[in-house]
Structure formats: C-alpha cells, structure tokens
Amino acid sequence: MSANLLLVSLGPGDIKHMTGAARQALEDAELIVGLENYIDSLPSELLVNKHVERYAIGQEYERANYAVSSAQQGKRVALVGSGDIGVYGLAALAISIAIDKGVNFMVVPGVTAAVAAASLVGAPLCVDFACISLSDLLVSWDEIERRLKLLLDADLALAIYNPSSTKRKANWIKAVSLIKESKPSYTPVAIVRNAFRSGQSVAVGDVRRLDTYYVDMNTIVIIGSNRTVQRNGFIYALRDWSITDGRKQA
Question: Which residue, 45, 82, 78, is CA-closest to 217?
Fold first, then answer.
C-alpha cells in the first residue's frame, strides 16, 4: 500500500470479519485515527507501538482533517470506520480534504452493516436492494421521506440504517407509517441490532408488527420486496418464483 493515508474499513465488529487487507493496513500504520468506540473494538495487539487518536461522535471534520494533515506530514495513517468506511462513513470527507491537500490515499473496503445483518437472517438482499439512512443530521427529513417513498414504490428490498436514536424517534414512526401504507402486511422484515458484536439481537417478522420492535442507531432494519420469502425463521429473496413461493408464509 503506497498511499500515506489509508481509509480502513473494520467490518461489522468481530475481528474475524475484518479483511486481511484491513488488518495489514492497521499493522503498517504508525498512527491510527478513529471514533473512540471503533478504536476500543480493536484487539490490543493491533495497537502495539502505534500512536492512537480517539475522537468523540460529532468530531467528524476534526477526525478526518487530523488524519489527512498527519499523512501530509509523512506519517503512515489509518483512518478507521466500522462496516465499510465508504458507506455512511468518513471516506468521502477525508477524500475531499486529501485532494485539496494533495495527499495520496487508498480506501480499504470492508463488510457493510447491511450485509452483516442480512447474513444473520438468510439472504434478503439477493435480488435488487437499496440502502437508506433515517438520520436527518446531514440530510433533511423532507429529502429522506421523498427518497423513501420512491424506493417503496420501486418495491426494492430496503436496508435501513440509523432508524432511531434517543433524540430522534419521530423519523422512525413516520417511516413505519409509510412502509405499512406501501407494503402488504405479510411482507417479511428483519431487525438486527449489533450484528456480530456484543449484545447482538436478531428478529424476523413482518410489516404488520414492524412498530413493535426496538430499534436504535446500532440497528439495521431490512424490509422485504414482493420477491422476499420467510421460511423457518429465515428470509430470502428469489429471482425465480418457480423455485418456491413462500411470500405469504408467517
């Protein structure tokens, strides 16, 4: 890896789901920069003889700018993010700063939260799907709502990031209402919290019970399409209905 700035995806949390390239990037780095809980999730052996800078939530620009500036000074820097750093992560901000400062960078991909969550309930993303975040910190709710309505109308399977938080519950309530208006009540859903992390919980159900599940910022909600089947506690999407048709199974 020739770039001084490595944008490293840590995967869903468990070290066994981190890619070999990501692990190598951390081993090669002199400086590791990241959100404090991302850093704390790393095995101690990956932090030996490293300078580590931990940041709190809300310090996204400071985190990215420090990593880029340090790389500009010739340090070998790993800026880390959970899942894939290019999916609702800091990669875009860091890349923008790096280009402005003439710093070479490399993005090291990883297992996204949506993919990790999907694997725990079967294969619900096996046909066309989309991801959407309900967080309105950087995108207005009006824009999120417009996108959500279009995606529901397109009948894609949906992986919903950041469905709710302690300060932001209204968006989830509104989203559930939109989903129930658009989807048949038997449409399979999955609610996965802390996939492959401590406190993992997995639930499979259907749209009619969607508002009964606890969701937070660590939850991925998967909403099925008209090709999604629920059987034996698993959900999966079929390309060919001639295989089996289990859409209405409870």
Answer: 82
Q: What is the pTM of this model?
A: 0.90
48-93 pLDDT, tens per residue? Answer: 999 999 998 889 999 999 999 999 999 999 999 999 999 999 999 9
Question: Distance between CA 148 and CA 135 in Å, rounded?
Answer: 12
Tell me the pLDDT band of 211, cut-offs 50, 70 and 90: very high
Tell which of 108, 142, 160 closes a domain: 108
User: What angle separates helix 170-182 from helix 141-154, to the nearest 10 degrees?
Assistant: 20
131, 197, 201 from 23: Cα distances, Å:
26, 18, 27
pLDDT in the model for residue 1: 55
By residue range, what is the domain housing residue 161?
Answer: 113-237
Residue 202: helix, strand or coil by DSSP?
Answer: strand
DSSP H helices in the chain: 20-28, 36-40, 60-72, 91-101, 113-121, 141-154, 170-182
The domain tally of the chain equals 2
Residue 242 lies in a domain: no
What angle separates helix 91-101 from helix 60-72, to the nearest 10 degrees?
40
CATH code at 161?
Answer: 3.30.950.10
CB 240: neighbour CB atoms within 10 A?
Answer: 7
Say what the pLDDT of residue 248 is. Answer: 47
Spatial separation of the C-alpha atoms in residues 28 and 62, rounded to whole Å: 23
**Which tokens belong to 73?**
């000074």
Q: Which of 53, 87, 108 is the last residue of a domain?
A: 108
What SS3 state is found at 235? strand
